[in-house]
Structure formats: structure tokens, C-alpha cells
Design goal:
This protein has 19 helices and two strands. With about 350 residues, the chain is an all-alpha fold. A two-stranded parallel ribbon has the order 1-2. The two termini are about 40 Å apart.
């Protein structure tokens, strides 16, 4: 009897999946149109030019962000340009040769040096060696918080004490009190993986989110803390589980402040989708995949696989199947209940 009931449940689940999964593709970007870490319209031309060995577009882009104090955009562009220069850095070398004191070239140089040092087997020693490059970038533009974000990342790898880290943090927030990148760097330092604990990590994230400006990505810090705890794989208490769900709810609200297919919150939405999948919140996760549109991001998927785009697509398909499997086959009188049980019009 038990085996018969199990078989019946499996057959019903399969029938629901077959019936409803195709409908749940509506509103989702097709697999072949999803892009991994796609640059925005401003960064794209600079990367194309860098691939041709030309640094001028990158220099102009970063100068614009500096002059207009676009610190969030500047931080993203610096990280992407440094990542590109990691294997193709001739254009950066020519830029530094032409303008060795350019604050924009210096900040990319510092980010690249820290990135390379982090991947060295002698990480702490290499990071100590690149400290002067961060100082040079910070001295070149006193208003810029990005060198201080780099300094926070550097300090984590160099085993800085809490006192030393707090001194850097004070300098960072003095320049931009709600800078997302600096908050992420601080959160990583306070994580259980490094020099803090899950509790410290969550406490910092929740306080920062409460103090954040409306629409600020800093409000997504608790979901980053949730991700760190989920990735650790430890058993959780009901209080910890509730805290993770509350973080996800806050991030859902933040995601709703942005248009579907907006590139700016894409990483936050990818992270939120990951957490929702881990919590088995399939309907909420599917809505985030719809809002993500074509903008898959390496983080967080690269944390669990060497194929982040493949993992993104696999997770998205899995969510569709789970949502479909939970929907009734038919309503009264044989009428489909798709609209009644799936609230999003995809």
C-alpha cells in the first residue's frame, strides 16, 4: 500500500510538471539569450577598446565617475577593468606609462595587484608587498572610497587585526557612508569564514540595512549574510532560519524597487534567487529569475561550480519544475487553476 501511494504521488507530480512547466517559461529570458556578467552600455565600449589595446575609453569612463562622484559605478568598473587586465594588461601598462600619476589608472593598478596577490600561495606576504599601491591610489584622489574598499579587501587577506580593520573602515565610510562595496568588504571580514561569526555578520548586515538609503543595495547585506551561513552547511536553529527568511524578504522588497531586466541590481537578484532556492521558496525564486532577465552573474553561482552560467540555468529550470509540481492538475469542472495558484503573470 505504501509503495502504491508513493507511486501515485510520483505520477501526480510528473503529470503536474508536464502540464504546467511550459506555461511557467512565459516571461523568462530564453537560455541562449542569458548572458554571464554582461557589461552595461558604458563599460562595454571600454572593454572592447581595451581588447584592442586602447586605454583611452577606460580612462575617460573612470574620469567621468570620479568627477561626478559616481562611487558605486566607479567601484564596479574598476573591478571589471582589473579583471580584464588580469590576462590582457598591455593597455593598462600603456595607460600607466602615459599617465603614471592618473588616479584612475592607479586605482585599477591597485585592484589588479590585490587580485593577483589573493591568488598567490604566499597570499599574506604578497598582499603586504602591494600595500603601497593602495596608498598611492588613495593619495591620488582623497574623496574616492574605492581605494579604501580595496584596502578593506587587502586587510582581510593580510590578517589585519580588528583594530586595524576598523581604522580602514572609518576612512572608507568617511568618504561614502553608504558605499555598497565597502559594506560588502566589511561583511566578509566579519563572516565566520574569516574573522567573525554568523551572528556578527548578521548583526552588522541588519544594522547597515536599517540605516541604508531607500533603494540602496546596502539593504541586500542581510541576504549576503544569509548566503554565507547557507554556504557553511551547518545545522541551523529555528531562529537562524527565521533570520535568513527575513533577510530574503527584505531583499525581495528591494528587488521590487527596480525594473525587470535592470542590470544594476542583477547580482543582488542572482544572490537572492540562490538563497530562495536553498530555502525551497520556489514561487519567490521564480519571480526573481523573471526579474533578472538576461543578466546572470558569476556570484553566487561560482561558489558551487566552475560553470556559473550552467548552474544559473539549471537552478532556473529546477525552480520551474518545483513550482509546476505544486500546482493542481485541474480546478472545478476541469478548469485549469494556473492563474489562481501562481500569482505572477509571467
Amino acid at each position: 500500500m505504501v509503495d502504491t501511494m508513493s507511486l501515485l504521488r510520483a505520477l501526480i507530480r510528473a503529470a503536474r510538471m508536464i502540464r504546467h512547466t511550459p506555461h511557467l517559461s512565459d516571461g523568462l529570458t530564453s537560455d541562449d539569450e542569458v548572458l554571464l556578467d554582461a557589461p552595461d552600455d558604458r563599460l562595454g565600449p571600454a572593454l572592447v577598446a581595451a581588447a584592442l589595446g586602447e586605454y583611452e575609453p577606460a580612462a575617460k569612463l573612470l574620469a567621468t565617475t570620479r568627477e561626478s562622484a559616481e562611487w558605486e559605478n566607479r567601484d564596479r568598473y574598476v573591478m571589471r577593468l582589473a579583471a580584464f587586465a588580469y590576462n590582457r594588461g598591455q593597455w593598462l601598462g600603456e595607460w600607466l606609462g602615459a599617465a603614471p600619476h592618473d588616479p584612475d589608472a592607479l586605482v585599477v593598478k591597485a585592484e589588479l595587484a590585490v587580485r593577483r596577490a589573493w591568488e598567490s600561495p604566499a597570499r599574506a606576504e604578497r598582499l603586504r608587498e602591494v600595500g603601497p599601491l593602495i596608498d598611492a591610489a588613495a593619495d591620488a584622489e582623497a574623496r574616492d572610497p574605492v581605494p579604501w574598499r580595496i584596502a578593506l579587501d587587502h586587510a582581510r587577506g593580510a590578517h589585519a587585526t580588528h583594530t586595524a580593520f576598523e581604522a580602514l573602515w572609518e576612512q572608507a565610510v568617511r568618504r561614502s557612508s553608504h558605499h555598497y562595496g565597502c559594506h560588502v568588504a566589511a561583511l566578509q571580514y566579519l563572516s565566520a569564514q574569516w574573522y567573525g561569526s554568523h551572528r556578527e555578520c548578521f548583526d552588522f548586515a541588519e544594522q547597515a540595512a536599517a540605516d541604508a538609503l531607500p533603494g540602496s543595495l546596502v539593504q541586500a547585506l542581510p541576504v549576503r549574510a544569509a548566503f554565507a551561513q547557507l554556504l557553511g552547511g551547518e545545522a541551523m536553529s529555528s531562529v537562524q532560519s527565521d533570520r535568513i527568511d527575513a533577510a530574503a524578504d527584505l531583499a525581495i522588497t528591494l528587488s521590487g524597487d527596480y525594473a525587470a531586466g535592470d542590470a544594476w541590481p542583477a547580482e543582488v537578484r542572482n544572490l537572492l534567487a540562490y538563497v530562495l532556492v536553498a530555502r525551497g521558496r520556489w514561487t519567490d525564486a521564480l519571480e526573481q529569475f523573471r526579474l533578472i532577465g538576461p543578466y546572470a552573474t558569476s556570484f553566487p553561482w561560482m561558489s558551487v561550480t566552475d560553470d556559473p552560467l550552467g548552474q544559473f540555468l539549471q537552478a532556473r529550470d529546477g525552480v520551474r519544475i518545483e513550482v509546476a509540481a505544486a500546482m493542481p492538475l485541474r480546478g472545478r469542472g476541469g478548469r485549469s487553476t494556473l492563474g489562481e495558484h501562481y500569482p505572477y503573470r509571467l
